[in-house]
Amino acid sequence: MNETIVCVVGNVATQPVYRELAAGSSARFRLAVTARYWDREKNAWTDGHTNFFTVWANRQLAVNVAACVEVGQPVVVQGRLKVRAEVREGQQQWASADIDAVAIGHDLARGTALFQRAAKPEGTPAAPRPEPNWETPPPADPQDGRPQQQDQPKAVMT
């Protein structure tokens, strides 16, 4: 319940690595996020510190990432943040910030994309859904609230 959900905007730093595992599809890539700020002394935008995240995608999201995400593309990633640190002999060796992605998309503020719905897996076709009734119901009788009977066209005998 107490997970840290983040939304991060950055650039894909490494080519996504896709794997088919017993538990399902998995993909990962590194995401570079660089802060930018306005430097008043230089009167220009300046790059700040760059944070790197390892983004993990599973199942259909992994398949879609492998198909359309490339190095250098601007993306938006939403998911659960997990920070790990390894300590050996009392010394911190390294720290890693991972995002278990729920959603990944191209940043349309910096470019365009063409969306294509993922193909459904082969299998039994879905049962056809019945056609909805598009006719509007007759207006309610102001006296009792029940729908009024509409006059039916009379058959003409000749």
From TrEMBL:
Residues 127-141 have a biased composition (Pro residues). Residues 145-158 have a biased composition (Low complexity). Residues 115-158 are annotated as: Disordered. The keyword Transcription does not apply. It comes from the Bacteria. CDD domains: SSB_OBF (cd04496). One of its GO terms (molecular function) is DNA binding. Pfam families: SSB. Keywords: DNA-binding. InterPro entries: NA-bd_OB-fold, Primosome_PriB/ssb. This is Single-stranded DNA-binding protein. It comes from Streptomyces rameus.
